[in-house]
Every structure is written in structure tokens, then in C-alpha cells.
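Reagents: none. Just compute today. Carbohydrate-binding domain-containing protein.
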Amino acid sequence: MKESKPSTSGYIVKSVDKPISIDGNWDKPEWQEVEAASIALHMGPEPEKFIPKTQVKLRYDKDNIYGIFKVEDKYVRCVVQEVNGNVSSDSCVEFFFAPDTNSPLEYFNLEINCSGVPLFHYVTVPRKEFKKLKPEEIEQVEIAHTMPDKVDPEITEPVTWFIEFRVPLALLKEYREITTPAPGVTWKANFYKVAAKSSNPHYFTWNEVINPHPDFHLPKYFGKITFQ
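Predicted 3D structure written out:
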């Protein structure tokens, strides 16, 4: 049986002249200048109660990758407060990226719940061979969040929340060689929105993933982010 091929999404990452202040403000000029990518393709069954609207934007400079997520959500829950804990069980956004063009199946996964708690791993073989970045290393990743530090009980009414982050390229280089972002360079990547243990469980992805059950750790289905 011939394997079906997914469509491949692309996103243009524009450079920025000066460091972006990480404060969770979607409307500041640095983000108004760039287009958003939509995380709208569900894996597994559609959520029964509500479909969140999730958007993400990226930028870069010579030292950092910057990103911001906007989530128009309901049934928001967030209880994990431990770095490298099971944040995907909460209302959570994720950025998976392969920063070496010679090794597109080896990737970092940065997962951040709506309270700003991160998980950050470097993966060489999905679910089998990976390194957890140390908490003191993850502290180098600057994160802003707009929700409380814990969301329990669940918020069932409509709420919009934001996650903004800055990842130093030097941190990535501690784990592997990377293809430094520059005009024309393309990394493989995907973005996700998940809430595995809310009352409205769901798994959404930016680039199409063809799999019988939700699985974000399938780098062959990453899309392309191209630096401009």
C-alpha cells in the first residue's frame, strides 16, 4: 500500500534589527510586521466541545529565535509546574524544530504550557534517544505568559492567552551543530496545540501529519521555516 504524502506548509521567518522584549504582547510593532501561521489541523478525533484557534509567529536575529503564540481557547487547564514535566497534559503550545539542515530528523522539542512552564528536549531518535536540557540551561530560554501560574479549576468560558519566548542559538549549539539562521536557510519544523488532560482533549498541528493516532514526534512530517 502506497503511503500518502502530506501537504508541506511553509513559513517565512523575518529578521529583526534589535532584541525583542519578551512580554507576551502580540500587538507590539515587532509582531505586527509579520504574518502568523495557523495551527488548525487536528490529529485524531475532533474535540467534542470546542476547537481552539491558535496562531504563531517567529522572528530571528544573529543570537536568538523569537516566537509568540496566540490561543483563543476554552476549557483551559494548567497544573504542571515542574520544568520538563508533562506539560502537554495541560493547555499547551509546542515548537519542534530541526536546526541542522544535514540532519532533518534530529530535532529539539520546546513545549510550554499556558502558565509558562517549559519542557525542552533534544531528540535523535523519537521516543527512544533524547536528552533533557538541564533546568539551569532551560532558564536561558526567556518565556512570558499571560495566564496565572496555575489554572485549576478549569476555565470553561472563552479566554485568549499568549506565550512568547526567546531561544538563544548558543544554547542549541551546546547539543549539536546547527545551520545558523540567515537569509535563504530553511529548517524543518512543526507547531502544535494540545490539551491532553483537559475536559476537551485535542491535538492540533500546523503541518499535516498522517498517522492513525495523535503523535507529534514524527519529524518526517515537519514543514519548512525559511529565514529571510
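The CA atoms of residues 195 and 201 lie 5 Å apart.
Action item: order primers for follow-up constructs.
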